[in-house]
Amino acid sequence: MKRYRIDEMGLRTMERNRFDQKTRRAPSGAAVPRAELTAALYRALFTEWAEHGFAAVSLERVAARAGAGKAAIYRRWSSRLEFAAEAIWSVGLDMAPVEDCGSLERDILAFLTRLRAVLRHPLVRRILPDLHAESVRSPGMGAIHARVAEARRMRGAALIERAVARGELDDTIDRSIALDCLPAQLYWRMIVTGASVSRTQLAQLAAAIAAELRSFCSADPGRH
Questions:
Q1: Are 59 and 80 in contact (CB under 8 A)?
Q2: Superfamily of domain 1-79
Q3: Each residue of 61-94: pLDDT tens digit?
Q4: What are the boundaries of each domain within the chain?
Q5: Contact 103/111 with Cβ under 8 angstroms?
Q6: Same fold, 1-79 and 97-223
Q7: 5-28 pLDDT, tens per residue?
Q8: Spans of the chain below 50 pLDDT
Q9: Is the dihedral of CA 156, 186, 113, 89 positive or negative?
Q10: Distance of alpha carbon 91 from alpha carbon 71, whole angstroms
């Protein structure tokens, strides 16, 4: 699959056609490059998904938004679920790992800053709750979601391992719990409650998470 330029947390930078804009139909007879049309179909799918929920996604409407016919979808994907799987995968994995900022707290702040950029996107805020619900209802979507989530956690694990290597965290720390802690509070605030988070609050949250992770290391080993 051809890769596109990606912004801070894996969302495609659509400079001409933002996710929340409809793509105009190409003039009759005009040749549309394959990669450009695939990107347009992804954008159209996410817009349709945000407006109607995945269960009510219409491939006819998706194709129309992308300025194409329904056949353009079925030439690429055999089903709506396969279409969604590739769209989610293409966005979900293209997240640059957090660079080494020199300390656990600064690494966490960089991670949260990138995550906040994603969670502020209006389509992301509308799609994520439905994605979680659909993952419970549909084993196929659940498998897709789990695959992407695990790949993203693997990248986030580098932050924990750097802190262990620096001696900021003990090697006995439960990596799974630590990775849960990194995004949980920010996600809850922005997606579940719909609240905003300022830069000052982001820094406070990074300090709190760093302290929480360090406290795991000083706890009774039997808890791990």
A1: yes
A2: Homeodomain-like (1.10.10.60)
A3: 999 999 999 999 999 999 999 999 999 887 765 5
A4: 1-79, 97-223
A5: no
A6: no
A7: 333 333 333 333 333 333 344 444
A8: 1-32, 221, 223-224
A9: positive
A10: 23
Of 68, 65, 63, 62, residue with least CA distance to 28: 68
Two structure tokens written together for 75:
């030439």
Which residue in the block uniquely carries the two structure tokens 């849960």? 180
What's residue 147's pLDDT? 86
Residue 21 makes CB contacts below 8 A (sequence gap 6+) with none
Q: Give the CATH superfamily of 97-223.
A: Tetracycline Repressor, domain 2 (1.10.357.10)
Per-residue confidence (pLDDT) for residue 218, from 0 to 100: 63
Backbone angles phi, psi at 96, to 5 degrees: -65, 135
Structure letter (DSSP) for residue 162: H
Q: Closest Cα partner for 111 from 187, 172, 166, 168? A: 187
Could you tell me if 192 and 153 are in contact, meaning their C-beta atoms sit under 8 angstroms apart? no
